Amino acid sequence: AKPKVIAIDGTFASGKGTLAKRLAAHYGLSYLDTGKLYRATAKLVIDAKGDPDSAVDAEKAARALNEMDIDSFLSDPTLKSGGIGAAASKVAVHPVVRQALFQLQRDFAKQGAVLDGRDIGTVICPDADVKLYVDAKAEIRAARRHAELVGYGEDISFKTVLAQLKERDSRDMGRKDAPLKPAEDAHFLDSSDLSVEDAFDRACQIIEAVI
Ligand code: C5P
User: Which residue ranges does the record assign to the Cytidylate kinase domain (predicted)?
Assistant: First the structure.
């Protein structure tokens, strides 16, 4: 059997994106990195000189995003920066923003897909065939993210990355609407001591045991 919808949630830099992409290729499913929707919303707010903490500014941006061609912004490499990520977690706090981005994600899942984010198993795809919750120790995630940012040419210390990551975790887990948490039926995957390959193998074992 083949899964139709795989929901992957987890902390920042846990490796869930890499895993999600590999699973999508392996099972012949489409892939949506839902963090990019929040990142693209944040970028629209910033480009319009708005404030990510303002629900009004953020909702306007999320609504504008719905009118845009999804492929045009999902492939924008500037969405990857640390600054946009932090702003994304601010716009993601507003319930109106989450509502504005809800249907788009639901529609995407209908064709059969792997989605990764923070609320996929809990809110977006509660009926997913398989739900994974990926996490790793904060120091390990920060080291991965630090290497990635340095690779993009950003001049940032490990200490700063670790502090930002902890701030991001607490904002994502502490918000009222759709906080990051494992769905009741999610399978845990701790990627702290796993290579990309091992995490993929482990995920496949979990999926094949479930479907
Ligand atoms: O995964 P990524 O770091 O790209 O996500 C950026 C931010 O977008 C997260 O910190 C989170 O606040 C928000 N997000 C969310 N729900 C999702 C995906 C991302 O709230 N499904």
Answer: 6-208
- Give the nearest ligand 1 atom to 168 CA: 10
What is the mean pLDDT of the segment spanning 126-151? Answer: 97
pLDDT at 4: 98
What CATH number is attached to the domain comprising 121?
A: 3.40.50.300
Amino acid residing at 148: E
* Residues 74 and 106 both lie in one domain: yes
**ipTM of this model?**
0.99
Pocket test for ligand 1, best of 45, 96, 118, 141 (most atoms within 8 A of CB): 118
pLDDT for the residue numbered 127: 98
Summary mean pLDDT of the chain? 97
- State if residue 9 touches ligand 1 by the CB under 6 angstroms criterion: no
Do 97 and 57 meet the contact criterion of CB atoms below 8 Å apart? no
Nearest atom in ligand 1 to the alpha carbon of residue 115 is 21
Examine the fold and report which residue of 82, 111, 140 is the final residue of a domain before the chain moves on.
111
pLDDT of residue 187: 98
Nearest CA to ligand 1 atom 21: 117
Which residues fall within 8 angstroms of residue 203, CB to CB, at 6 or more apart?
19, 23, 132, 189
Ligand 1 neighbourhood includes 117 CB (under 6 angstroms): yes
User: Is 70's pLDDT higher than 90?
Assistant: no
pLDDT band at 82 (very low <50, low <70, confident <90, very high): confident
Domain range for 139: 1-29+115-211
Give dist(CA 179, CA 150) in Å, integer: 29
